[in-house]
Amino acid sequence: MNILLLGSGGREHAFAWKIVQSPKCTNLYVAPGNAGTSEIATNLPLAVTDFTGIKQVILDKSIDLVVVGPEEPLVKGLVDFLFSEEETKSIPVVGPSQLGATLEGSKDFSKRFMQRNNVPTAAYETFDSNQLEEGLAYLEKQSLPIVLKADGLAAGKGVLICETLEDAKTSLKEMLLDQKFGEASSKVVIEEFLTGIELSVFVATDGKNYKILPEAKDYKRIGEGDTGLNTGGMGAVTPVIFADKDFMAKVEEKVVQPTVAGLASEDIPYKGFLFIGLMNNNGEPYVIEYNVRMGDPETEAVLPRIESDFVDLLWGIGTGSLKDYELSLSSDYATTVVMVSGGYPGSYEKGFEITLPESVENATIFHAGTAFNADAKVVNQGGRVIAVTGRGKDLETSLKNTFAVVEQINWDKAYYRKDIGQDILKLIK
């Protein structure tokens, strides 16, 4: 079949890498893609929010399946648009409806959904700019630290953990009155701080049936030892030692099943991936947030562990036939290290030529923020530039294979964390 994949990051390169391994894929088009996807698929110069352009590509290229990588087009209603158009309404799309995407597009919406469906999550209240005084009064009654979340999409940066009451009050004012995160913080969710160990659980669902993909742990902060500013993710590890069979059974029973059942009972059309950010709190799962797509960089670690045909999985999601899909997973470890532009997540320079190894062993290089310059050289074009995923029978081997490749990649001011996976290694030992 002819497949259209939307997006340009490391997640999309990993999707493309996995899709072209399937004999079911005849042609893969990636819009807009990056330097890495251009080597294995056909890039199209098209924005993920250009709905009419996407429709035209579907018709021009005789597309049989559409896969949406990032959240923005989903939150803006791409799936609803394609299903409302006569020429594209019969084409399966992997991605939820606009209402389903509100699980990520609005923290308040997702928290209310969790409450209605008895999904365990932290206690919370939501306030807008007209309720500032109520919000400040609410803060005075809460335990510290306390979490403030911008209600809308804030590129992974709209969550603040406040250690003092003064900091919390100042931050609430900045978010509601000064629009610290723009329109995203026109409403703010104030949430109880959960302790424990974070992990990400990924679910493929056709709205009724589901398959639980490998879980992962990601590393969000820029500095080693989990210090410094939050980023879109500096690395990931799968499997996760603190997500054993007993814990994952609780996740399925207390989180996945009521979530999927809630989507069905509330008539929320959802055919896509659900990324559940969890806290393991003394062996009990609590949902921190839902995302309505695969995570990045977790995707780059999770997909290499899927041994069954990935296009069959995507087709099962898009056509509502997921119950017939047999998911087969490798027991190997996969570890991903993200290489970023110097200065990220703040300002950084673009256009530096990237030195890449001609061949690699036991690892895969995924491009994220890359492009070609006028001389057809690969250069850094974004903050997160390259993700390297190594594999191995154990975590130590997997990390060794990852860093062996990372050390061969370079460009001016490149940076990466050298401690990815070390906390898990200590738990194992």
Automatic annotation (TrEMBL):
Residues 111-319 form the ATP-grasp domain. GO terms for biological process: 'de novo' IMP biosynthetic process; purine nucleobase biosynthetic process. Pathway: Purine metabolism; IMP biosynthesis via de novo pathway; N(1)-(5-phospho-D-ribosyl)glycinamide from 5-phospho-alpha-D-ribose 1-diphosphate: step 2/2. Coiled coil: none annotated. It holds the Pfam family GARS_N. It catalyses: 5-phospho-beta-D-ribosylamine + glycine + ATP = N(1)-(5-phospho-beta-D-ribosyl)glycinamide + ADP + phosphate + H(+). GO terms for molecular function: ATP binding; metal ion binding; phosphoribosylamine-glycine ligase activity. The keyword Nucleus does not apply. It is an enzyme of class 6 (ligase). Keywords: ATP-binding, Ligase, Nucleotide-binding, Purine biosynthesis. The keyword ATP-binding applies. Its EC number is 6.3.4.13. SUPFAM superfamilies: Glutathione synthetase ATP-binding domain-like, PreATP-grasp domain, Rudiment single hybrid motif. InterPro entries: ATP-grasp (IPR011761), ATP_grasp_subdomain_1 (IPR013815), PreATP-grasp_dom_sf (IPR016185), PRibGlycinamid_synth_ATP-grasp (IPR020561), PRibGlycinamide_synth (IPR000115), PRibGlycinamide_synth_C-dom (IPR020560), PRibGlycinamide_synth_C_sf (IPR037123), PRibGlycinamide_synth_N (IPR020562). PANTHER family: PHOSPHORIBOSYLAMINE--GLYCINE LIGASE, PHOSPHORIBOSYLAMINE--GLYCINE LIGASE, CHLOROPLASTIC. Belongs to the GARS family. This is Phosphoribosylamine--glycine ligase.
